[in-house]
Design a protein that fits this description.
Strand content: 15-25%
Number of domains: 2
Bound molecules: 2'-O-acetyl adenosine-5-diphosphoribose
Distance between the termini: 18 Å
CATH architecture of the largest domain: 3-Layer(aba) Sandwich
Largest sheet: 6 strands, parallel
CATH class of the largest domain: Alpha Beta
Radius of gyration: 19 Å
Strand order of the largest sheet: 3-2-1-7-8-9
Length: 246
């Protein structure tokens, strides 16, 4: 489906020099990956985050948490980037001032070709140990998962940010600086509810950037955004890329 963008939006897209895209689970929905907060289909409609996505949950039941992430890793590995991801890679290729901050851990932006990218919540395909964050590329098979770290013997876990854990400081600072300095900010497929990442569009808006929201549903950002496209990312982003790069 091709959508028509307002002419004022097209003018701002074409004039933009420094562009930040901020993405959430919604951009990967069209690749078949579940979001978190959508009422029927979101992961948090089926599972409780406090059972699966906190350090305490891992300490209580490491096997359950490890196996849940193993399942998600398998689903993410089979998924393919969709036209929304590819449109952002196309914009980056044409725009030296493009920066992407994602909350997604699925790795699909990098697979689509984005390089000027921070993964604020980590990446599900990387594994580290619980006690010292030693990276692990492989491990001995075990009947009692999770496997253990080859260096220190502590349990292995996914390199993602769980509730109650800090974001990697360097990733967050880069994203905050980019948001403060951009002239165009695209907020795509995120409920804009999980802080500190959710602060980014507000930082951009309060520093004078044009803020564009792409989301079929209302979010706490909708009132502040200069333009709201109630579209799927896979529809809106190719139209935006075409308008910018024509
Ligand atoms: P959410 O599940 O909270 O929000 C997904 C958003 O995507 C919703 O607002 C949907 O309306 C929207 N959406 C659904 N399909 C879409 C589509 N095809 N195109 C565009 N938008 C669509 O996911 P996030 O905002 O990413 O944190 O959640 C933020 C964080 O909460 C996640 O990174 C994760 C989660 O707990 C951690 O794992 C630390």
């Amino acid at each position: 489906m091709v959508i028509d963008l307002p002419s004022e939006l097209i003018d701002r897209l074409r004039a933009a020099q420094r562009i930040v895209a901020f993405t959430g689970a919604g951009i990967s929905a069209e690749s078949g990956l579940s979001t978190f907060r959508d009422k029927q289909t979101g992961l948090w409609a089926k599972y409780r985050p406090e059972d699966l996505a906190t350090p305490q949950a891992f300490q209580r039941n490491p096997r359950m948490v490890w196996e849940w992430y193993e399942w998600r890793r398998g689903v993410a590995a089979k998924a393919e980037p969709n036209p929304g991801h590819y449109a952002l890679a196309q914009i980056e290729a044409a725009h030296p001032g493009f920066f992407l901050a994602t909350q997604n851990v699925d790795g699909l932006h990098a697979r689509a070709g984005n390089r000027n990218l921070v993964e604020l919540h980590g990446n599900i395909r990387r594994t580290i140990c619980f006690d010292h964050r030693h990276p692990a590329d492989s491990w001995a098979p075990t009947d009692e998962p999770p496997p253990r770290c080859a260096h220190c013997g502590s349990l292995l876990r996914p390199d993602v940010v769980w509730f109650g854990e800090p974001l990697r400081g360097d990733a967050l600072v880069r994203a905050q600086q980019a948001a403060a300095q951009c002239d165009l900010f695209l907020s795509i497929g995120t409920s804009t509810m999980v802080y500190p990442a959710a602060e980014l569009p507000f930082i951009a808006g309060s520093n004078g950037a044009t803020v564009i929201e792409i989301n079929p549903d209302f979010t706490p950002l909708s009132k502040l955004a200069n333009f709201v496209l109630r579209e799927k990312a896979g529809t809106a982003l190719p139209a935006i890329a075409a308008a910018m790069l024509d």
